[in-house]
């Protein structure tokens, strides 16, 4: 039996749609695997009632197929599905690490990125790797069609998760097919600023670089209470706020001293919109951890 703790992630960070991602210190999925003649999946934990155990519909089934590694896979969900915190990706990344070790496939974490992304194709229609990459590698990741770049950082964040859900598939449906050059230029500048901020562990630069005029304006409308929460987090000291992944989670970057106030302000703002929520006060953290029982 092998056990992997695979972290939640936040993708996009505003200016890096389908490119940027960070691993979060909490929450995380725990995946346990043992060899079996055929893949069988059991799911417990947060939102498990909404997650199919059929290997053809679960992200870990796609990973087991891609690695030709049949197993009994137990998923204990810490990351609620349809959260914007990379729930489907955490399971896929955890299974990729676990099955790679269980069957001695010898693949590197980088080589596991496209394999874990097969699970994302199953649930959202596209094999975008911006959640699986940070869950596998930790820190801040930049994913392009043919490369993954990783930077270790420990920027403080607050990830606020309302009780509502948004499907990634639906949220991809509202993304415009083209954008004015002016907005693209601004977004490139912001993305570059954010990247430098990550390399310097500088929450002010990262926050400044999170602004996005292309995707986020269309997505915020899918999240009840978003505008209040965004404003409240900034007033409480966040250096940048945006939709986490496809939402409805909202990510605030900040200095550690402001974390508590920001978490409270975000919860209160969702509450004022009639929505219960919880806030994870955490840092950008490490990638999936493997434990041999
Ligand atoms: N192992 C799994 N864990 C979580 N969700 C899964 C898993 N396998 C299949 N799913 C399905 O994937 C969907 C959730 O994935 P989705 O990408 O919409 O949310 P998310 O991963 O929380 O969000 P995001 O990618 O925006 O961070 C649900 O329909 C769920 O049933
Ligand atoms: N980049 C993807 C991530 C989903 O978590 C999207 O925003 O659709």
UniProtKB/TrEMBL annotation:
<keyword id="KW-0067">ATP-binding</keyword>
<protein>
    <recommendedName>
        <fullName>Homoserine kinase</fullName>
        <ecNumber>2.7.1.39</ecNumber>
    </recommendedName>
</protein>
<comment type="function">
    <text>Catalyzes the ATP-dependent phosphorylation of L-homoserine to L-homoserine phosphate.</text>
</comment>
<dbReference type="GO" id="GO:0005737">
    <property type="term" value="C:cytoplasm"/>
</dbReference>
<feature type="domain" description="GHMP kinase C-terminal">
    <location>
        <begin position="200"/>
        <end position="270"/>
    </location>
</feature>
<keyword id="KW-0028">Amino-acid biosynthesis</keyword>
<feature type="domain" description="GHMP kinase N-terminal">
    <location>
        <begin position="60"/>
        <end position="139"/>
    </location>
</feature>
<feature type="binding site">
    <location>
        <begin position="80"/>
        <end position="90"/>
    </location>
    <ligand>
        <name>ATP</name>
    </ligand>
</feature>
<dbReference type="GO" id="GO:0004413">
    <property type="term" value="F:homoserine kinase activity"/>
</dbReference>
<keyword id="KW-0808">Transferase</keyword>
<dbReference type="InterPro" id="IPR013750">
    <property type="entry name" value="GHMP_kinase_C_dom"/>
</dbReference>
<dbReference type="GO" id="GO:0005524">
    <property type="term" value="F:ATP binding"/>
</dbReference>
<dbReference type="InterPro" id="IPR006204">
    <property type="entry name" value="GHMP_kinase_N_dom"/>
</dbReference>
<keyword id="KW-0547">Nucleotide-binding</keyword>
<dbReference type="GO" id="GO:0009088">
    <property type="term" value="P:threonine biosynthetic process"/>
</dbReference>
<dbReference type="InterPro" id="IPR014721">
    <property type="entry name" value="Ribsml_uS5_D2-typ_fold_subgr"/>
</dbReference>
<keyword id="KW-0963">Cytoplasm</keyword>
<dbReference type="Pfam" id="PF00288">
    <property type="entry name" value="GHMP_kinases_N"/>
</dbReference>
<dbReference type="InterPro" id="IPR036554">
    <property type="entry name" value="GHMP_kinase_C_sf"/>
</dbReference>
<keyword id="KW-0418">Kinase</keyword>
<comment type="similarity">
    <text>Belongs to the GHMP kinase family. Homoserine kinase subfamily.</text>
</comment>
<keyword id="KW-0791">Threonine biosynthesis</keyword>
<dbReference type="Pfam" id="PF08544">
    <property type="entry name" value="GHMP_kinases_C"/>
</dbReference>
<dbReference type="InterPro" id="IPR000870">
    <property type="entry name" value="Homoserine_kinase"/>
</dbReference>
<comment type="pathway">
    <text>Amino-acid biosynthesis; L-threonine biosynthesis; L-threonine from L-aspartate: step 4/5.</text>
</comment>
<dbReference type="InterPro" id="IPR020568">
    <property type="entry name" value="Ribosomal_Su5_D2-typ_SF"/>
</dbReference>
């Amino acid at each position: 039996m092998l056990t992997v703790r695979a972290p939640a992630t936040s993708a996009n960070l505003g200016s890096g749609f389908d490119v940027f991602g960070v691993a979060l210190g909490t929450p995380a999925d725990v995946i346990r695997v043992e060899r079996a003649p055929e893949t069988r999946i059991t799911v417990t934990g947060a939102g498990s009632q909404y997650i199919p155990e059929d290997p053809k519909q679960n992200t870990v089934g796609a990973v087991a197929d891609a690695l030709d590694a049949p197993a009994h896979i137990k998923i204990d969900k810490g990351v609620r599905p349809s959260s914007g915190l990379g729930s489907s990706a955490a399971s896929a990344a955890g299974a990729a690490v676990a099955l790679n070790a269980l069957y001695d496939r010898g693949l590197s974490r980088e080589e596991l990125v496209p394999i874990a992304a097969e699970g994302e194709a199953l649930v959202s229609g596209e094999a975008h790797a911006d959640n699986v990459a940070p869950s596998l590698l930790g820190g801040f990741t930049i994913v392009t069609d043919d490369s993954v770049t990783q930077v270790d950082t420990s920027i403080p964040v607050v990830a606020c998760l309302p009780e509502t859900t948004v499907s990634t598939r639906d949220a991809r449906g509202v993304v415009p097919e083209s954008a004015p050059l002016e907005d693209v230029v601004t977004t490139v500048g912001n993305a570059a600023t954010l990247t430098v901020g990550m390399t310097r562990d500088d929450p002010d630069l990262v926050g400044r670089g999170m602004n996005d005029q292309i995707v986020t304006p269309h997505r915020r409308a899918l999240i009840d209470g978003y505008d209040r929460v965004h404003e409240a987090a900034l007033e409480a000291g966040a250096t940048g706020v945006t939709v986490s992944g496809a939402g409805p989670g909202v990510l605030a970057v900040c200095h550690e001293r402001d974390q508590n106030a920001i978490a409270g302000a975000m919860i209160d703002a969702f509450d004022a919109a009639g929505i219960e929520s919880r806030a994870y006060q955490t840092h950008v953290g490490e990638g999936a951890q493997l434990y041999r029982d």
